[in-house]
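Technical note accompanying the year-one report. For the benefit of new consortium partners, we illustrate the data format agreed upon in the data management plan: each record pairs a sequence with a structure-token string. No post-processing was applied to the example shown here.
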Amino acid sequence: MSEKVLHSVITENAGEETKKQFSYMEKAEGYVKDLEKELGRKPTACVVTFGCQMNARDSEKLIGILTKIGYEQTESEDADFVIYNTCTVRDNADQRVFGRLGYVSGIKKKKPWMKIALCGCMMQEQGAIEKIQKSYRHVDLIFGTHNIFKFAELICTMFESDRMIIDIWKDTDQIVEDLPIVRKYPFKSGINIMFGCNNFCTYCIVPYVRGRERSRNPKDIIREIEYLAADGVKEIMLLGQNVNSYGRGLPKEDKMSFAELLNEVCKVDGIERVRFMTSHPKDLSDDLIKVIAENEKVARHIHLPLQSGSDEILNKMNRRYTKESYLALVDKIKAQIPDVSLTTDIIVGFPGETDSDVDETIDVVRKAEFDNAFTFIYSKRTGTPAASMEQVPESVSKPNFDRLLKVVQETAKKRASRFTGQTHRVLVEEVNEQDPSLVTGRMSNNTLVHFPADKSLIGEFVDVKLDECHGFYYMGTMIK
């Protein structure tokens, strides 16, 4: 897979904090060179990512800085520097991290120069920090979600100290981008447009670990996208915990809604497709629907988390919409964007949920006809209001989950086949993992397509006739 470093030099628009971090990168590079002499080879670094697209984007920043200061990237945890970028949406995500820490402790005993770092959402929880301090003393560096831009500075501190370095910020109003990034793909990239969340859904830990909503300056976003386009990027994904609320908190002279930002992004030459993730139903505006409908560059895919179809459960979840208003929104979207694909998230077994509540959710699935739904059995998240509510036993939630899933699969299968025989533009992303004579690409609506073609087409848009539907993917033939 091709990889490239982006923003490896200071841009003319860089702020003081960015310049400061580049100076720390120079200093850190000296420490890495000393380690290289000691080892007789280039030191290796491994970043293990848990969680969402925003975590994946953060990991690209970590890898960018590590590459800049002289580490060689590897996917093996038998590296000289291992960084776990953690997620804490569910309790079992924490347990997976503790399991990895136990594994690398054995490696570090054989490699005393090895460094281990933890960052991300889990590190914003005091209980997690206390457990690491007590039971995982082999960890060298801990930092959170708000000060990831200080990574180079923290690496220097780590090299200069023989104690565990902990640097956690409770919150911040700072946004520092313009740092080195290694993109996973040379032809597509994520772009952070905002950080944090103000919604406080009762099952969700995100507002507590990612902080309040902070929007990036629109000029900075457009400038970064222009840079990416000049560097060969053709598809971008605008990222935020709730992109629909973009613009809140911006100064008056820079005020811009998400619909307005999306419209401006589509004007950037070289960018051929624009995606975004994630939308909260209560904030999806008529203006946004209009921008999507009128601009072919915007992907025909909207992820619109439902969570529940029961008004009572939605109220307990603090979702701030109703079954009726959600379905009205779906109807409005489909009326104005007929070729759109809608996907969603649904939780089964939320505290207090009954069989009849699940019936309401199933009713929404049938009426909305989602192209796909990511369904979960509720998992109690310590630190959230829902954790103290009366829990639903698995003997109730599991049968309800199974019957919901059956309906989801039925409606999704019906929706998936509707493009059979049509020709669609597909961005070729990689050689097919199962059959090297095929390549795999993605349609505007996010559906995968496998078809015979040469790997030289990776990163290009091509027209593909969709011959056969196989559930959630198509087999096709390229139109030359």
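Partners are asked to follow this layout when depositing records. The mean pLDDT is 92.
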